[in-house]
Each structure stands twice: as C-alpha cells, then as structure tokens.
Amino acid sequence: MRTKLKNLLHQPQEKVIGQDYTVAGWIKTVRAQKELVFIEINDGSSFSNLQIIADKTTKNFTAVAALTTGSSIQAQGHLLASPAKGQKVELKATEIFLFGPCPPESYPLQKKGHSFEFLRTIAHLRPRTNMQGAVTRVRNALSFAIHRFFQQRDFYYIQTPIITSSDCEGAGELFRITTLDLEKPPKTKDGKIDFKEDFFGSSAFLTVSGQLNLECFALALGDVYTFGPTFRAENSNTSRHLAEFWMIEPEMVFADLDDDIETAKAFLKFILQEVLSRCPEDLAFFEKFIEKGLVERLQKVVDSPFEEISYTEALKILEKAGQKFEFPVKWGIDLQSEHERYLAEKHFQKPIVIRDYPETIKAFYMRRNADNKTVAAMDVIVPKIGEIIGGSQREDRLEVLEEKLLRQKLSREDYSWYLDLRRFGSVPHAGFGLGFERLVCFVTGVENIRDVIPFPRYPKHISF
Length: 464
Ligand code: 4AD
Ligand code: MG
Known about the structure:
Blueprint: H1 6-9, H2 13-16, E1 20-32, E2 36-42, E3 50-55, H3 61-65, E4 72-81, E5 89-100, H4 116-121, H5 130-152, E6 156-157, E7 163-164, E8 176-177, E9 204-206, H6 211-221, E10 224-231, E11 244-253, H7 257-278, H8 280-289, H9 294-303, E12 307-310, H10 311-319, H11 337-347, E13 352-358, E14 374-382, E15 386-393, H12 398-407, H13 416-423, E16 429-435, H14 436-444
Parallel strand pairs: 3-5, 6-10, 12-13
Antiparallel strand pairs: 1-2, 1-4, 2-3, 4-5, 7-9, 8-9, 10-11, 11-16, 13-14, 14-15, 15-16
Helix pairs in contact: 5-7, 5-8, 7-9
The protein binds 4-amino-1,4-dioxobutan-2-aminium adenosine-5'-monophosphate and magnesium ion.
Magnesium ion (MG) binds next to strand 15.
C-alpha cells in the first residue's frame, strides 16, 4: 500500500524517519545529474512535494534519469532526514516504477506560471496546478466545517430536489429541462408549445434554491439545512456569478430575523476558524501568491464583531459619501455592487449586515415589517466580494403572503402547497443562503469565481 505524502511530510520527524515506504504521485520537477536524480512528486494529499533521490543503486537508474515532469510514478525507498533547505525529509529510492509517461513537448502545464484564463481552457488538467490543489483542499475543509457547524447545532441535513416546477426567487432566471423534440414540439390549440406532453406533464426547471422545499421540513422537524448545486440563467458575465453554483441554506423555526443574523455571523466565524486551523499550508500559498495579509484579514473577521445597519441607514451613508455612483442613490433602489463595495471596503472596512430592505426589491416570501414598506431581509456584505449571504424571516401570515404573491404577479395556484404551510400550523421561521463559491473567493483571495469551482459554467462556457 502506498503512503500518502501528507503522512510523511506533516508528522514529527522521529515518527517517520528511518523506515521504508512506498509513495506515488505525479512528477513536479526532475533534476538529473550524473550520479544523482532529484525528483519532486505530489499526490494531492498536501501542498508540499516529497523529494525523491535516485542514484546508481536505484534499479533502472538510466530510465529514472530520463523521467519527465507530469509523469506518474511509484517509488519505494527509505525515508531520511533531508540535508537540503526547504524540506525536512526525503525518500532515498531503491526502485521507481513508471505508470504513465508524460511527453514534455505536448504537456500543457509547463513549469512557468500560467494565466488563470489559460488554465480555464484546460480545466481537465488544471487540478494538477498548485493553485487548484490548494483551492480543492480549502473547498473540502469548508464543506466539512459547514456540516459540522449545523450538526453540532442539531440541524438535519435535507436533500432538496434539483429538478423543480417552482421558481423560488420569483425572478424568472430558470433553466428549462425538457425531453420534447425541439425540432418539432407538440403544440396546443393556440399554437404554443404544449408542455403537458413533456416528461413531467408540465414545465420543469433546474432549481435556483432549495428554500421552499426546505421550509416544508423545517415546519415539521425543526431546524434543517441543505447544501447543494443551484442554477441561475442570468446572463451575468461577472467575476462573482456562475450559472451553476453551490449554496448552503439553513432554515430555522421559532426564529426571527435577529436569530437569523446571529446564526449567519456565528456560522461564518466558525467555518473561517476551521479553515484557518486545517489549511495553514494552502492559506500560506494564497497569502504569498494571491493576497498579502490574507490570513490576518480572515483572523480579523473571526475575532471582531460585524457591523449591522438597516438599508435606510446604508442609504444615508451612501448619500453622504461625496462620491458619484454609476447608479444614483435613492431610497428604494436595489443596492448595486458599487454601493456594497463602498460600504464594506471604504466606509466600514469589514463585513457588514444590511437589514430591512424595501419590500419592492425583494422576493415574495420575505416577511413584511410593521412599517409596511420594508421586509425582514438581511444580506451579509464582505469586502471585495459584496453579497455573500442573503436571507430573511419568512412571511408566515397566510393573507399577507397571498397578497404579496398577487403584487408580484405570481400565481397562487403554483404556490398553493407553499401557502398550505401557512394554513396548517404556521410558525415564525427564518433562513439564509450562502453562496459557496463566493465564500471560497473570500477565503482564498482569488478574484474570479470561475477559478474556485472545479468546472465553471457561465454564459457560452460548458466544456468538460
Ligand atoms: O440571495 P439569494 O438569491 O438567496 C436565495 O436564493 C434564498 N432562497 C436563500 C435563502 O434564504 N435560503 O442567493 C443566496 C446567495 C447569495 O448571497 C450569493 O452569495 C449566492 O447565493 N449567489 C450566487 N453565487 C454565484 N453565482 C450566482 N449567480 C449567484 N447568485 C447568488
Ligand atoms: Mg440576494
């Protein structure tokens, strides 16, 4: 059995040195001298590579000397303390076996750094870069921390459907799923496409959010959460939007907007703390190559309170900013990225919670406040990214919810099952959604969301 590099590189030396091991991985660099060959391999288990040394006593020394970057090998040998700088241990190889050679003239990943744009065109090989390796380990640590946070607080993990007939956000940004023959679709009498003939007997879409389904379980079992892929057909070509992204959504019962905000803050702090303690090597890489001061920035978010302001207060700050925004500031507008960034980056210089937004700009399910103008909504805004969390207390009063559907021109029939939750044993409840990839950008300092998801989907890009 091979030993993962992590278990040799991140152990107290006295525990591992002097023993024989089999290791395997992909060659990062080879330096061949007359009598000695130095090979560095990586197997993904840690950011660091293991140095392997071969000499004349190594079987097939001549073949070993001809190995190239990118090839996959297995090596057996003896682990020694390394005399060289930069590493604590190295493997003195008795035997090296080549699994798959890698022709240097056509291997797209050369030693020199590549642009993120170029790497996106080779997303199938990009996992072998230091950058994607580090992103992957951070994503993994964050995912696990997310489950830990909710499990510790006795939330149930619910698997909400991916295929749906309802538009949770009511924004019409849905991808349609169909098995109809698009060349010759069945038509109704008035010439429209007849979706009754479609696979599900009606229109079907990819979900934009698991929230509505989650509410059904919350109103039966208490606190619940989901963590799954969501899809938005918004034609946004920005560094913060994907057509397919992962979202974490908790839903809490007997809870109001204050409880929602408290949970969101505790949640962010917990998962940041976890990644700080589990991924120091990967974060050190991001600190060195992507963003100076990253670790300190993250630690500050863990240690200091968030700022909390109302939408109305936010507007007052923006009006007094003495800065010309592209979108003029006026009560009632949806906050644009430039406004959010001014508040989080310039004014407060830390994460902020903005609450109580105008009813007219927010989704139909948010609870109307007593002022009849605003809803119990909250967004968490962080420097560089903008909105990372969006949440709200849900409208739990049947008549008000019916009226809100009507106002937003949404059909009561389509949402009748959702209204049932208010007909039968309604309770105050609240929840939020955290965009996982925006979180990963925030944690790594990586600027473009397309570089923190394994295979990004965005307008005109669906390869791999
Ligand atoms: O604010 P949103 O649209 O909220 C909801 O979907 C609610 N149903 C959540 C809930 O209350 N359960 O989306 C939540 C978060 C945003 O704050 C943002 O971080 C992320 O999802 N997000 C996106 N991330 C990447 N690409 C996109 N196109 C995104 N749209 C939203
Ligand atoms: Mg939002």
